[in-house]
Design brief:
- With about 290 residues, the chain is of the alpha+beta class.
- It folds into 2 domains: about 150 residues, Fructose-1,6-Bisphosphatase, Chain A, domain 1, CATH 3.30.540; about 120 residues, D-Maltodextrin-Binding Protein, domain 2.
- The chain is built from 7 helices and 16 strands.
- A hairpin with a 2-residue loop joins β5 and β6.
- The longest helix has 19 residues.
- The radius of gyration is 18 Å and the shape is globular.
- The termini are far apart.
Length: about 290
Amino acid sequence: MNGTKQIDASLERELALAIELARRAGREAMRYYGGPLEIAHKGEINEPVTQADTAANEIVVRGLLESFPADGILSEETIDTSRRLGKERVWMVDPLDGTSGFIARDDDFAVHIGLAIRSEPALGVVYRPAVDVLYWAVRGSGAWRKKGEDEATRLHVSDVSDLREARLAASRTHRSPRMDRVIEALGIRTETRRGSVGVKIGLIVERQCDLYIHLSPRSKQWDTCAPEAILREAGGMLTDLWGYPLRYNTPDVWNRNGIVASNGALHDRVIAGLAPLLEEFGRKRIE
């Protein structure tokens, strides 16, 4: 694949497998797209899950276990255990990020496969099967995009540094009056609402947007690991709302301090602008 020749040889096999599994899982999920779905709800926030989620999860988790049995795995659709906590390498898997979009048939969903090494994102693959768009990155080797049979292209974020010119990638469903307050206070004028963290990070690395803010403490490590790896390699940044880095493979899998993802040029201004608002909201950073 174009671009993989520049990949660190130590992770070349991992990348090839992650891409293969993401494509296979995406094809499996698409078998259910537009057809009758068995929708259940799970967890603290009553998240939807379908047979497409579990079928895609089976493909990814089984493939990772067969090829890298010594690694840990944290997947949204697999029961978590403490076994992963002693591992330096842990795969972070969301077999269908944006299940609500899958159910609504709006194309805003993606397969996420990330690899965290010593708690930091080292590899990321995000695949959007409905539009056949694949993003991937390995630490130190750049970020790449491939659509269908087109040549792979290297990704670079925008250089927009004025918040009045910034284009915000906003959540389609997770909207609150506080988010409206943030947009007003930061002076953001342009907004695109989409589902899936992977889809929104895709907008940033393709220069269609410059910024994504997620105030909620309800995203999880499998939502952000693969997208963060890709965003970093495209020149962007992803931190919590206070500007601290996210850590992976921790006992608590929630990103309780929210998310700010940007092109990097905007990041310090956003964090500074958020500080008084977070105080206004009574929001305290959780250590």
